[in-house]
Amino acid sequence: MDEQSAKNQIIEQAVETAWGGLKAADGAICDVFFKNAPMPATMPDEFVSILALDGGGQNIVIPNNKTRRFCSVICEVNTPKGTGTARAEELAHTFQEVFEGKTISGMRFRAANVSEFDGRTHYKTNVFIPYEWDRNNA
């Protein structure tokens, strides 16, 4: 498995562990879609898309020859328009709590940036969390 796939898997497992208790008003768990996951022909009223992006690197000595990679994970929360922001904020906050300020499998997550906007079909809340990790240059 390549490094990006391994990082994606770690992120997906952390999200799936936290997401189990997030139920919509009708009792259904919010749908979560990860990178390269098939999307349904008709999107649900409430769903979350998660994308991990690899960024640039910097050669450093820590004490061995390693490359520090600067990356980010983005969560796009989609909730029905006209239903208020409370549910979007709940989902965004849950995602934020999974990663912000934590180290998971060597990935060090930083402070989140949250933005909200009214999309064409859904109300959207985006959570952007930068992280870094050190890759061995063996």
Walk me through the structure.
This protein has 138 residues and is an alpha+beta fold. The protein is built from 2 helices and 8 strands, in the order αββββαββββ. The chain is elongated, with a radius of gyration of 16 Å. The model has no long low-confidence stretch (mean pLDDT 83). Strands 1, 2, 3, 4, 5, 6, 7 and 8 form an 8-stranded mixed sheet that branches. The protein has helices at 3-19, 86-99; strands spanning 31-34, 47-53, 57-61, 65-80, 103-104, 107-109, 113-118, 122-136. Helix 1 (3-19) packs across helix 2 (86-99). It starts with a helix and ends with a strand.
What is the N-to-C order of secondary-structure elements (H for helix, E for strand)? HEEEEHEEEE
Q: In terms of per-residue confidence, which ranges show pLDDT below 50 for 5 or more consecutive residues?
A: none
Which assembly state applies to the chains in this document?
single chain
The N- and C-terminal alpha carbons lie at a distance of 17 Å
What are the defining features of this structure?
138 residues; alpha+beta; 2 helices; 8 strands; 42% strand; elongated
Itemize the secondary structure elements and their pairings.
Blueprint: H1 3-19, E1 31-34, E2 47-53, E3 57-61, E4 65-80, H2 86-99, E5 103-104, E6 107-109, E7 113-118, E8 122-136
Parallel strand pairs: 1-2
Antiparallel strand pairs: 2-4, 3-4, 4-8, 5-6, 6-8, 7-8
Task: Briefly characterize the structure.
The protein is of the alpha+beta class and 138 residues long. The protein has helices at residues 3-19, 86-99; strands spanning 31-34, 47-53, 57-61, 65-80, 103-104, 107-109, 113-118, 122-136. Strands 1, 2, 3, 4, 5, 6, 7 and 8 form an eight-stranded mixed beta sheet that branches.
